Amino acid sequence: MPCKKEFPHLVQMQQKFSNRGFVVVSVHLNMGVDKDLGLSGVEKTAQSFLQKVKADFTNLILDEPEQVWMARLETGAVPTLFLFNKQNRIAQKFIDIEDQAAFEKEISELLDKP
To answer: Above pLDDT 90, what percent of the chain?
Structure first.
């Protein structure tokens, strides 16, 4: 899954930039692949993965139907990463990060802005 592939890089970005105010919040989308697990099963599976990759930031589970979060986030792709500026507005939206160096540069530049 692309989310699991990219997740360790997010953990690295949190570790690298946290001293500059960078914060990661992940949202697990309770998608069709998880529907048979039920919410407690999803929580256990997600928690196991998060511990494995040493994610020490806020992790949420969204239990809305796919069509609801797709409309609200204006995306149908996962993973989608949103970078927020210091005014809490979306500064950049990334779908499936292919260029990790460019993503890192974008984070650094955003953190440098007032």
So the answer is: 24
